[in-house]
């Protein structure tokens, strides 16, 4: 059963995934033909082609039967061909209707990507698309994990939340969901993780001060502060508003 503590532990672990995915995407420059619909013979950009077909395989293999996973493809995906794993029914059923992947997608390509890749072209478009998808999936999982955080918070103190949920009082709910101290800790830890995970490791194992990091630690932490935390909180809020539907 998910608790607030175990949900936070999951968010902490997901930081590693996101930072590694950032590092992997920043190995490549922007590679703009990846996103150009006219570059392929399939009327899709390489990105759309890789995203849809990767997700189709994953969908067949059962990935999206897990409520933590939400696909990005705008076309319908084939059903799972594997026996259904009985994931715990922790969330309220309305959770399934909360999906902000469209917003995440737009934000990623318009605001995030240009911050940490060089505006260059090295021809590795398929690899670039795969790296984009991995990072998008990690970001989406983190943000939508707000459903689990919100449910855990609600279950630990239902009386604190119920009146504002029934009154649809967004402002009070947001206050109840916000812990400034926790947010500051997340942002600081992400910056440190980007330093530790993004350094060159050698046998002597000394952390090189002032060395070059594989992804700018201040960009990683800014990404959390400006987008990931506010959007996670927003998912928490939207989830709670549907908690009694
Ligand atoms: O840890 C929590 O309590 C959360 O709700 C998660 C989170 C986050 O996104 O990291 C969001 C809101 C809180 O203000 C603190 C942190």
Summed up:
This is Chorismate mutase. This protein has 245 residues and is mainly alpha-helical.
Explain this structure to me?
The chain contains nine helices and no strands. The longest helix is centred in the last third of the chain and has 25 residues, at 217-241. The chain has helices at 4-25, 46-60, 101-116, 125-144, 146-156, 158-166, 170-177, 180-197, 217-241. With 245 residues, it is an all-alpha fold. The chain has one domain: Chorismate Mutase, subunit A (Orthogonal Bundle), CATH 1.10.590.10. The mean pLDDT is 96. α2 (46-60) packs across α4 (125-144), α4 (125-144) packs across α9 and α5 (146-156) crosses α6 (158-166). The protein binds prephenic acid. Prephenic acid binds at residues 8, 11, 149, 177-179, 182-183, 186, 229, 232-233, 236.
């Amino acid at each position: 059963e998910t608790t607030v503590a175990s949900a936070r532990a999951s968010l902490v672990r997901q930081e590693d995934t996101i930072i590694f995915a950032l590092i992997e995407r920043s190995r490549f420059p922007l590679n703009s033909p990846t996103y150009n619909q006219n570059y392929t013979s399939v009327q899709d950009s390489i990105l759309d082609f890789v995203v849809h077909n990767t997700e189709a395989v994953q969908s067949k293999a059962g990935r999206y039967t897990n409520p933590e996973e939400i696909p990005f493809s705008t076309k319908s995906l084939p059903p799972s061909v594997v026996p259904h794993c009985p994931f715990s029914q922790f969330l309220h059923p309305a959770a399934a209707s909360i999906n902000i992947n469209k917003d995440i997608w737009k934000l990623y390509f318009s605001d995030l990507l240009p911050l940490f890749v060089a505006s260059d072209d090295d021809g590795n478009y398929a690899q670039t698309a795969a790296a984009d998808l991995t990072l998008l999936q990690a970001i989406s999982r983190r943000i939508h994990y707000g459903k689990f955080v919100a449910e855990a918070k609600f279950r630990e103190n239902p009386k604190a939340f119920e009146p504002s949920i029934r009154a649809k009082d967004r402002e009070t709910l947001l206050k109840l969901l916000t812990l400034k101290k926790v947010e500051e800790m997340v942002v600081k830890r992400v910056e440190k993780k980007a330093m530790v995970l993004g350094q060159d490791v050698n046998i002597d194992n000394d952390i090189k001060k002032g060395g070059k990091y594989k992804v700018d630690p201040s960009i990683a932490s800014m990404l959390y502060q400006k987008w990931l935390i506010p959007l996670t909180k927003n998912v928490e809020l939207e989830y709670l508003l549907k908690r009694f539907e």
